[in-house]
Amino acid sequence: MTHALIIGGGIGGAVTAMALKKAGVASTVYEAYPTGADDVGAFLSIMSNGLDGLRAIDAHQPVLDNSFPANCVEFVAGSGKQLGAVPIGGQAGVLGPRTIKRAALYRVLHDEVARRGIEIEHGKRFTGAVTTSRDRVVAYFSDGSRAEGDLLVGADGIYSTTRRVIAAAAPVPRYLGMTTVCGYAANSPATTPPGIYRMVYGRRAFFGYTTAPDGETWWFASIPSPERSRDELAATTSEQWRQRTVDLLTGDKAGTVDIVHATSQGIVGSSAYDIASTPVWHAGNMVLLGDAAHAASPSAGHGASMAIEDGVVLAQCLRDLPNTEQAFQKFEQLRRERVERLVVTSAKMTGRAIPGPVGRMIRDALLPMMLRKGPRNTSAWLTEYHIEWDTQVGLIGAADVA
Ligand SMILES: Cc1cc2nc3c(=O)[nH]c(=O)nc-3n(C[C@H](O)[C@H](O)[C@H](O)COP(=O)(O)OP(=O)(O)OC[C@H]3O[C@@H](n4cnc5c(N)ncnc54)[C@H](O)[C@@H]3O)c2cc1C
């Protein structure tokens, strides 16, 4: 049986392992951290298309059980003026978007991987790989160990080592000038009805929040800031994040400062990066997926869903095409246009999050009119993507899935 080495036990790695098993390919997952990635304090949304990808491999139920709905977004100006609302999912027959803590998502995916008899080795930091003369691949780890397989999948996220192993000149992530700060307020004075996200266009920060079924308010703030190293981010205390966020929200009249004040601890921050395009996705028997291949800024809330789609489509390609090279080519053909379009879309959203005074006036005048007319479903190309597991990949053209 073909055996894959999967580098990275994040969202894409775990999903790929399950999808490969369903496709008849064995795998082992190698994860650098003892439990999961380093930014586990945050939360994220899994969109309808991400849940559809999980459903294709029968892995959606544990995610549904540990998340809550995200059906609608309300927009509010920093002045407190209501700008309108837009639904973000819930079409008939489609699993609606969900909100989940990153740590919970990693846990349920890892539990599901283990339940299916797939091994995850923790504390294995991948450092490099070579292809042997027998067309096998050997992966090396920082603890001195190695592993051999028939192919290697780089699902090691935005700072991917695999990306550099596949192509030494691979692009590095581009900083987008924003830090995402995030926290959980147990006794927030401002809450939302179930399934609602309230997005506040503050004058100096973009703020979003939603209230979990237990009454806790989950919030994030996108704040403009100079680039900070991962060590600097990790060394920043919850209190320092609170102070920076409060400073930028002060003066807005949408209740956001009070939410941050109601957060006693555990406020974390991470920098917003993307990679516009990675020219080389595969070489020999190694391939990239998820953020390792195409990281988008967090603004569109779609990176996790894309990593899920990638894992399922890659497994279909390996199932249906006669050899690894053809499978990787088909995978890239099916995925590149879609994921790079997301990167562009999400970067534009990041750039528009905090406009100047004129941009604010135009937005506050136009947005309510646009939303009153009935929202154009401009994200249908993202959310209505559907994967039919049993469809033979070789029969699909790129145009059919764009
Ligand atoms: C603040 C923030 C908010 C976000 N919000 C959303 C959202 O709401 N919705 C959404 O869809 N997406 C969101 N995203 C994006 C989303 O988190 C990513 O797109 C998604 O996690 C990508 O999955 P992945 O498996 O490719 O990478 P990851 O989930 O990052 O997993 C990569 C894994 O590889 C491991 N790894 C790294 N290097 C090595 C190595 N050398 N050896 C072994 N293992 C290694 C890491 O520890 C990690 O576990 C957000 C991102 C951020 C930063």
UniProtKB/TrEMBL annotation:
SUPFAM superfamilies: FAD/NAD(P)-binding domain (SSF51905). It comes from the Bacteria. One of its GO terms (molecular function) is FAD binding. Residues 2-343 form the FAD-binding domain. Keywords: Monooxygenase, Oxidoreductase. This is FAD-dependent monooxygenase. It comes from Solihabitans fulvus.
